[in-house]
Write a structure and sequence with these properties.
110 residues, alpha+beta, SH3 type barrels, five-stranded antiparallel β-sheet, YolD-like family protein, YolD
């Protein structure tokens, strides 16, 4: 069966409705910033320090321009005062993340 998708309904929709639907689906891909509790923040800092000392790979879920992303890498540098993390990803790219971008992090198990 050959489905024409939205094309068959386009003649029944006003251009304003089409624009509104496009905006809706665009916004659906974004997320609101999450706020970590003090306990979560302390646990995150502890995991960061342990990962630095053991040179262990970590998995990080973070926000970038309102969307969730995930990466695996090792910590090159952690600035606990400036609240910033420098990573070397598994693809050998350098990545800088602010702590307020990080949603969660954990040790990476292969």
């Amino acid at each position: 069966m050959n489905d024409r998708g939205n094309i068959k309904w386009a003649s029944l929709m006003l251009p304003e409705h089409v624009k509104m639907l496009q905006d809706f689906f665009e916004e659906e891909d974004t997320v609101d910033p999450s706020i970590l509790s003090e306990d979560d923040s302390a646990e995150m800092e502890h995991t960061i320090q342990e990962a630095i000392h053991t040179s262990a790979a970590i998995e990080i879920d973070f926000k970038d321009n309102g969307t969730y992303k995930k990466t695996v890498g090792t910590i090159i540098k952690a600035d606990l005062i400036g609240r910033q993390l420098n990573l070397l990803t598994a693809q050998n790219n350098k990545l800088k993340l602010r702590f307020d971008q990080i949603v969660s992090l954990r040790f990476h198990h292969k």
